[in-house]
Each structure stands twice: as structure tokens, then as C-alpha cells.
Amino acid sequence: MTVPMSVQENIRRLDSQGVPDREIARRLGVSRSSVTKYADQENYSPEPPAPPARNGASVLTGVEHIIEMWLGEDQRRNRKQRHTAKRIFDRLVDEHGFTGTYSPVQRFVKKWTARNRQTGEGFTELVWPAGTAQVDFGQAEGSQFRSRKFVSALHANGLTGSMGRVGACGDNAAMESFFSLLQKNVLNRKRWETRQELRLAIITWIERTYHRRRRQKALGKLTPIEFETINNMVLAA
User: Fold this and answer.
1) Angle of helix 64-74 versus helix 85-96 axis, rounded to 10
2) Of the ranges 45-59, 116-130, 157-171, 184-198, which one carries the lowest mean pLDDT score?
């Protein structure tokens, strides 16, 4: 029978006062064995039993070198002709009588691929040299970035803070539209092997297509270059 915590506390309190176990049992309506158990108990949060130690041997022992050989050969093949983790698992089962599950094979292939990734594989980070830029911090959870520390950090780094108006989504509309076009027309068109290749593609698209060929409804069906040229002529007149 489980003894409530409040009763356990009373058992320990009466025992510390020197009350005999028989009297404690009579007052609290519990058995003498329960009194003896909880009066002497010190640790009320025993640690759970530790799980049995696993065998140090991997389930892939004996086939790891085979997987590494296949993956190493794949480095010289076209990407579409390389082994997937599922294909490796199927070959191990069919050709080598592997009796393990798919998960350890998948984890092994993932770790091996990460360690042996070749130059040019994966996505490149767009890291550009320092220069002039505008950053819009806008609005966050109803609180504008106007704290003293934030403003001091801007000044210390030679930046000018610009706050967006509450609920004015049009503040960001122009840049959101531009970057959406850049994503669709350049970034998502192919896999870029180097930063320099992507940088040249972005510059080419902006200077040749966006500025000189793409007519915009907001500019009266003119390109940005045409619109700027006309306005400069008007201002100069």
C-alpha cells in the first residue's frame, strides 16, 4: 500500500520526537512495517536503474569497408549515378547477407559523405565585402528598435537607423518584390559552384535585364534607366 506523502512526513516527525513505532502506527493508522520503512528512509528520489551496457561492436562491423569502397568509387561518377543510402542497404542485403536495419546504414553514409565532401559541392554562403548598405529593422512584436543601447551600437558602427511605420507594409514592398524576382530569375535557375560565378550572374541580371530591359507598370511602362534619364532631363531643364 502506498503511504501518502503527508503521512510519511508525520512518521518522520514523530520518530524524531522519540515516539515508539507502535504508538506512531496507532496514531496514524498505518502498519508498523510502514513506520519502520519510512522512519529510516533517507533518499526519497532514488535514481532509476541504469540501462544495460550495449555491446561496443557496431552492427556494421564487417561491412563498413564495403560501404566505404562503394562511396569512394562514387566520387568519380556523375552525381546521378552515385549510391543512395537505400541502394547501399539493398546491396548489402542482397550481396552480403546483411541482417541489420536501414537506419545505421543511413547514418554511416551521411557521416561519411559529410567528412569527404568534395570542393564545390553543397551550397555556397553569400558573403560579400563590406560596403554601403541599408538595413530595415522595421517593427517587432509592437516594439520599435529605439533603445539607447541599440542606437549607441548604430552610431558606434557608423550606421543610420531608419524606423518603419506601424502597419505600413508598403515600406518593404519594393525591396521584397526585387529580391523575389532575383530569387526566381537568378538564384533558383541552376546550382552555383562558386561565389564568383553567382556574383557575376547577379550583377549581369541587375545591370542588363532589370535596369535596361524590364519595363515596370509603376514607372509608366518604362525601364528604370529610361525613367531615370527622363526625370534627370526634366530636372535639368
Assistant:
1) 130
2) 116-130
* CB 162, CB 197: distance < 8 Å: no
User: Inter-axis angle of helices 21-28 and 5-16, to 10 degrees?
Assistant: 150
Partnered with residue 216 across adjacent β-strands are: 222
pTM value? 0.32
C-alpha cell at 14: 514523530
Confidence of residue 233 (pLDDT cuts 50, 70, 90): confident
